[in-house]
Every structure is written in C-alpha cells, then in structure tokens.
Write a structure and sequence with these properties.
Length: about 140
C-alpha cells in the first residue's frame, strides 16, 4: 500500500475553541524571541494563566490569538508549541480507532485516511526513528 502523506487543509479547527494548548517555559522563550519581545511582555500580551502550572495562548474571536483568520495560518509557525506541531498525528490517534475517528471527524486533513493507513504511518515512523532513514 503506498504511504499517504498528511496534508493540512488549513481549516483552522485545531486553533479554534474555548482554550488552546499549554506552553512550556522553553516555548515561551522561543516565541518571545521570535516576536522580539521580553518574556514578560509576551506573557502579558498573548497568554493567560489557566492554573498554577498551565499557561495558554489567549483566545481572540474564537481562535488562538496567533491564528490568522484571513490567511488561515499560524502567525508564529516556525516556533509554534510542540503540541501544535505534532497535531493531528498525536500518540492518541495511533492507540485507539475510536480516538482516530473522533479526530478524523474534526480535522479536514485526516478525512481520507483509513485506520489501516494511520497504523502504517505509525509503523513507518517507528522504522524511521530506529534506523534514522530519511523516508
Ligand atoms: S484541523 Fe487538521 S486540517 Fe484543519 S488546520 Fe488543523 S491540522 Fe489542518
Ligand atoms: S499557536 Fe498557532 S498552531 Fe497553535 S493553536 Fe495557536 S494559531 Fe494554532
């Protein structure tokens, strides 16, 4: 079976909602630098403290504050948080078909993938990690 490649359709669904991803201190540093801001300025302008240990991007008009609703792109793409980079190929979709179906319904880029094809991607990723081959 030929391996399909995931292609983001820029629907913006993963950047919309009531909350966004949590960001680590390293990510805060990287994003602040990228924006030419001090960490304090970045935190004040763009983030919310959700709990003692959880900092998230602010929401603006129903989307993460860094989502460009016209161009449908992430304004901090080169330094976006790890969870944004890995989405939607997160470990949970490889673990369970039901998880895969839920995320498939939500993400336009997964619409044409079957459970079999997703498992194949997981196996190829494993081979890639163990052999360091460029696939
Ligand atoms: S939900 Fe999927 S297709 Fe839509 S922007 Fe996010 S990754 Fe891309
Ligand atoms: S940082 Fe970028 S990719 Fe992540 S939720 Fe915000 S707009 Fe989307």
């Amino acid at each position: 079976m030929p391996l399909k490649t995931f292609e983001c359709k820029r629907c913006g669904a993963c950047c919309a909602g009531e909350s966004t991803v949590s960001i680590s201190s390293k990510e805060i540093q990287n994003i602040s630098q990228f924006l030419g801001l001090s960490t304090e300025e970045f935190l004040k302008k763009y983030t919310l403290l959700k709990s003692k240990t959880r900092i998230e991007m602010k929401i603006q008009d129903g989307y993460c504050i860094f989502f460009d609703t016209i161009k449908k792109i992430c304004k901090i793409h080169p330094v976006k948080p790890y969870k944004c980079k890995e989405w939607p190929l997160t470990p949970i979709i490889f673990e369970d078909e039901e998880n895969f179906k839920i995320i498939k319904n939500f993400c336009q880029g997964l619409k044409n993938f079957s459970w079999k094809e997703i498992k194949l991607i997981k196996n190829i990723a494993k081979i890639k990690n163990s052999s360091k081959l460029e696939l």
